[in-house]
Structures are given as structure tokens and as C-alpha cells.
Specification:
single chain, 119 residues, alpha+beta, Aminopeptidase, seven-stranded mixed beta sheet, 3 helices, 7 strands
Length: 119
């Protein structure tokens, strides 16, 4: 992604997650609660290509979704690159709306209902 899109001024509003192998950062994600709503947006989910297929993306999403639950969010939304669509579908995310272009890449909006924490 171009730096002009990646640097959006919203980092301070988000909870950030990283995955490491030793001292090397190999994956990242952020969760940004949407003001005035009970949903959050998963953004900047990425794993270095040579580390894909090892479950790192799944673990990042596990902690992101757990954080959403802790924050009292009811839903996580995201804009999935089409190449990652199956990854999110396997996690229970649901497609919503038409596909669209973002930075020259086809994306699909998706959402996941977050179960309430057990009392």
C-alpha cells in the first residue's frame, strides 16, 4: 500500500497488535473503535509473505477479536483484500455489499458479530 494511504492519522485512536519471530516483527493489525457505535474496524492486518501459512494471521485476529470483546464492541468490520477473503470467511466473517477498489486492489467489506463475554 502507498504510504499516503497507510499513514492516515488514526493510529492514536487504535489498539495495535504485532506478531514477532524473535526480535523481528512479522505481522501487524490494529483495532479502531468507531466513535458513537458499538463496532470496531480491523485495519492494517498483514503478515510478511514468507511467514504466511503458519497461523500468525489467525492469532493476530484472535487477540484483536478478544480486545473487541473486552472493549464491549458488538461487531468487528473490515475491508478484506480479495486474496484474503477465504481467510476471513473461515473465521466466520460475513460479506456485505459490493466489492470495491481501494488503492488499486479489490476489497470486500465484511463483519463478524462478537459474542458478549460470559458473566
Amino acid at each position: 500500500m502507498p504510504e499516503s494511504i497507510e499513514i492516515d492519522g488514526l493510529d492514536e485512536q487504535a489498539v495495535h497488535f504485532i506478531a514477532r519471530e524473535g526480535e523481528m516483527v512479522v505481522g501487524t493489525a490494529r483495532l479502531r473503535a468507531i466513535a458513537g457505535q458499538t463496532k470496531g474496524k480491523a485495519e492494517r492486518v498483514a503478515v510478511l509473505s514468507r511467514f504466511r501459512g503458519r497461523g500468525i494471521g489467525g492469532r493476530l485476529m484472535d487477540v484483536l477479536e478478544a480486545e473487541a470483546r473486552e472493549l464491549g464492541l458488538e461487531r468487528v468490520i473490515l475491508h478484506a483484500q480479495i486474496s484474503a477473503l477465504e481467510f476471513y470467511l473461515a473465521r466466520g466473517y460475513i460479506e456485505e455489499g459490493p466489492r470495491f477498489d481501494e488503492a488499486g486492489i479489490v476489497h470486500q467489506e465484511m463483519w463478524l458479530q462478537i459474542p458478549s463475554p460470559c458473566v
